[in-house]
Design brief:
Length: 262
């Protein structure tokens, strides 16, 4: 059994800037744990720009964060145990985890060893099964979860922050205090934001108005030049060649119109 005064809980504040998952106190690999493997389920949610909820503590249990389920996002899990223990020797856990997150902000760092990759489906979920709690050196494993690809049918303007998960994770009781029971079915809720592209008629003020069936229109005729302003949201991972192979803007004019690019 593990020592009574040594607990580990998920204390992830799931904002767009910070995701921290790890123990609030040290846990030693010498402590015996009955469980050998855990399942980790990604529950991918997306919100319209500015609608993402405020900081909510993720307990590792099933929760309701709102938003919409997002299918088609690829998440890759990496083993960063060796780097984590190297960093924590001369620092604290929070600083070590923040350093790994920073290294993985654009793409996974070279020291991260790929374990598996899954694509969200159904209700925006992807489950990584049978992740080992300890390694062959009897150290507790530390995993890094990175959103490596986003769907093609929606523009993700703010990508999920990398998640660092340090084993083991213990269940919480009704008062949110850690128990002696290891959570072998961990639920994570990474966030995305999206924004709508817009197309504006920018020189409408150059024309008089005409009212048809109670609705006002610009009074234009053949040969008039109509200026439009396009606001297009660029994918957050546009710089990652492994995630985005191309990005095209196709503006097809209605019948009777032709495009003139300035």
């Amino acid at each position: 059994m593990k020592k009574k005064n040594l607990f580990q809980v998920v204390i992830s504040i799931l904002t767009l800037l910070v995701v921290f998952i790890g123990p609030v106190k040290a846990v030693f690999a010498a402590d015996d744990v009955d469980a050998k493997n855990v399942d980790v389920t990604i529950n991918k949610r997306i919100w319209d720009e500015g609608q993402t909820p405020k900081d909510i503590q993720n307990t590792g249990e099933t929760m309701d964060f709102g938003g919409r389920a997002l299918n088609g996002s690829e998440f890759t899990v990496y083993d960063v145990t060796e780097k984590y223990y190297e960093l924590i020797k001369n620092s604290d856990q929070k600083t070590a985890i923040a350093a790994i997150q920073s290294d993985a902000e654009a793409v996974a760092p070279t020291y991260a060893k790929k374990v598996d990759a899954k694509v969200t489906a159904g209700d925006g979920q992807a489950t990584f099964s049978n992740l080992t709690i300890k390694n062959d050196a009897n150290q507790y494993n530390v995993y890094l979860f990175v959103e490596t690809k986003t769907p093609n049918d929606i523009t993700v303007t703010k990508r999920a922050v990398p998640i660092v998960l340090a084993m083991p994770i213990y269940k919480l009781d009704a008062t949110q205090k850690p128990t002696d029971v290891i959570n072998t079915n961990i639920q994570l809720y990474p966030k995305n934001e999206t924004a709508k592209d817009t197309k504006e008629f920018s020189n409408a003020g150059n024309f008089s108005n005409v009212t048809i069936n109670g609705q006002d229109f610009a009074n234009v005729t053949t040969g008039d030049i109509l200026n439009y302003k396009l606001t297009v949201n660029i994918p957050a991972n546009i710089g990652d060649a492994n995630a985005v192979q191309s990005f095209k803007i196709h503006d097809k004019p209605s019948d009777g119109f032709t495009n003139r690019i300035r």
